[in-house]
Every structure is written in structure tokens, then in C-alpha cells.
Amino acid sequence: MGKKMAEKTSLQVLDLSGEGMTNAGLSDTSSASTYVMGLSLPASDLSAARSKQKNYKSANLSGANLRNARLRRANLSGADLTGADLSYARLRAANLEGANLTDADLTGAWFYHAKFNPDTILPDGRKWTTDTDMRLFTKQLQYAELQNASLKGKDLTRASLWNAVLKGADLRKANLAGADLRNADLTGANVNGANLKNAILTRVKLSKMKFDENTILPDGSKWTLASELRQFTKLWTRVDWQGKDLQAVDLSDARLTYANLSGANLRGADLSFAGLKSANLVGADLAGANLYYAEFSRGTVLPDGCNWTPETDMRKFTQP
User: Fold this and answer.
1) Which residues does 134 contact at the CB level (< 8 Å), separation at least 6?
2) pTM (2 decimals)?
3) What are residue 255's DSSP bridge partners?
4) What is the pLDDT of residues 234-265, one digit of tens each?
5) Complete DSSP assignment for 221-284
């Protein structure tokens, strides 16, 4: 194939500019190259890419930035995607048979109806099987049923695990940094040596969980027998905070059912979406507090000593 013919064909085959490749080719400043159907094309950054042809059979895309790329129905069979960033890419109905995904970042990627086969190499170096749960690589595990699952050492950084059932799961040495575990059930789970730094544990069920001195908590500290985990789960049911100074404290999403907050300083506190059913707020200072979608019940005693009713205008306490 002559030089002019190859240049012309390359523009027809690869349209990855994000703007339809109407006026400009890919950057030629990078030394990295993509080989598509025998053609050598720059591939340092293909993020948010759009493709007209979508035939990348046996393409060398190792280390490519394909974040947010639109690759619906793309033929990536036999492609080398080693270390590629495919986070949040759309790969619906894509053909990944025999593709090499070793160390690829698949966080948030969409593989609905994508094709794999036993020759497909997964990010952890293993081969794909019919039992493979790709959600462990895309980290989209909300509402997942993972009771007693073996997740030892798994990379679940920034994973979406809200409302997931992880009862009795083996999470030893798992990396859960930044993971969203809101409302997850971790009853009896083993997190010895796990990294939970910056993880969101709001309303997580932690009963009978196993921790050790190597478990890293959301605030970066190591777990000890004295660790107060309710500050992370925000499940403060029946807590006694009478007269406590809680000015400007973030208690959003906290569950404070039957909490004694009488005389507490809650000026400027964030109580949005907080559960204050049957809480005692007699004499509490709520000036400037954020009560957006806070939950009350007829058993909630307000700062003026009256019980809450659906007709109560809480602004008389937050905006005195």
C-alpha cells in the first residue's frame, strides 16, 4: 500500500477526536502509536473518542487513554489493551474476544451485551470464564448480592457498593479507598488489613465485623479497640448528646432516632436528610441549621417543648 493510500485509509478507519474527525487528525506529537488493521496511528489520548468504523481487530492500544470513549459494537477482538484507561467507556455489544485487558482500568465501563471468550485476558491477568463477574472490574456493584464472597485483595477503589449485601464477605487486604458503601450490609465481613480511607460508610451495618490493627479507617487512622465507628456510619441511635457543642457539625444522613439532643448547640449544623424521629431537642439551638429533608415524627420533641406535627414550620427555630 502506498503512502498516500495509507494516509487516506487511516482517516477513514479511525475517528477518535470526539468531534467526528471532520477537520483534524489525531495529534502527531506523541511517540505512542496505535496499529489498526496494519496501520500506524498516534494514540496517546483517545479519551471521549467517537468512532465511525469501529474495527480495531488486533489493534495495539496498550496504555491508550480511552476514558469515556464511545465504542458501542466496536470490534476489539485480539486487541492489546494492556494498561489502557477504559474508565467510563461505553462498550455495549463490543467484541472483546481474545483481547488483552491486563492492568486496564475498567472503572465505570459499560459492557452490556459485550462479547468475551476464554482467550480474553482480564485486568487481574486471569482468563475470562462464564462465571466471571465483570462488575468486580467495572466496580459498579450497587445492590450486588455478595454474601460470603471471596474478595480478598481486590482493588475496589472508588467502587459503587451502596446497598450491596456483603454479609460475611472476605475483604481482607481489599482496597476500598474512596468506595461508596452507603447502606451496605457488612455484617460479619472480614476487613482485616483492608484500606477504607475516604470510603463512605453512611448507614453501613457493621455488626460482628472483623477488624485488625492494619485496617485503615475512612479518616486515614488505623483501627484500634477504641475506634468509634459510628462517626463514619452516622448511626447514632439513642446517643446522649445533652448540652453537647455541635456547632456547624456535619450530621447529614445521620440516624439520630431517640437521640437526646436537649440543650445541644446545633447552630449552623448540617442535618439534611438526618433522621430525628423521637429525638429530644428541648432547648437545642438550631439557628442556621440545615434541616433539608430531615425526618421527624410525632415523638420528636422540639426546642420549645412541643411535639413535632406535619404542620410544624421548623423555620421558627432555624431562622429565629
Assistant:
1) 106, 111, 114
2) 0.73
3) 235, 275
4) 999 999 999 999 999 999 999 999 999 999 99
5) PBP-TT--THHHH-B-TT-B-TT-B-TT-B-TT-B-TT-B-TT-B-TT-B-TT-B-TT-B-TT-
